[in-house]
Amino acid sequence: MTTDLDIAAGVKVPATTLAREATELIRDTTSELIYHHSRRVYFFGSLRGRGRDLSFDPELLYLGAMFHDVGLNEAFHTSGRRFEVDSANEAKRFLRTHGVPEDSVRRVWTAIALHTTPGIPEFMEPEVALVTAGVEYDVLGIGYGDLSAEDREAVVALHPRPDFKNEILRAFTDGVRSKPETTFGNVKADVLEHFVPGFERGDFVRTILDSRWPE
């Protein structure tokens, strides 16, 4: 059953067993910051999909949004993998234990794995594109004016964002500081450069020139 806590700006959280169990899992295993952010990603992604007249599976979009930052949890701090991949793998494990078809598992995995890789998801399946669109809207403010103030306020009223900019940057830093090598070539290198003294980002050109190839 959909409740008032599952509706904002005309967007409903899927009233399915899978969505409900995913919500409970994320609520129990992540911080309030990540829980509220993940829900906003679903609402904003859905609204941006509606604005683009995209046809998408709300349940798959919801699952991608809810799991997309699970890899920031302390349990993954020493995994040696990019946090996006840890997040995607957790979603895959959850979906497979619930007998979700492999094509749907693939879509959710891809949506999560690519959500910090701009320029690619927008050309893929709608669920993949809209997880990224929701993240970009909530974290970066990309397309901020594409939604009405009323819709923004409805979502934020349901899932507030107190001091969100600083809090999400702190979560990113804590999530990847112990595996700095995973930030090579991606946006999290910017985070560590700002907040971790002594961090040195990988240099793509230097990596090529210093490789063992003689020429």
TrEMBL record:
Residues 35-122 form the HD domain. InterPro entries: HD/PDEase_dom (IPR003607), HD_domain (IPR006674). This is HD domain-containing protein. It comes from Streptomyces endocoffeicus. Signal peptide: none annotated. It comes from the Bacteria.
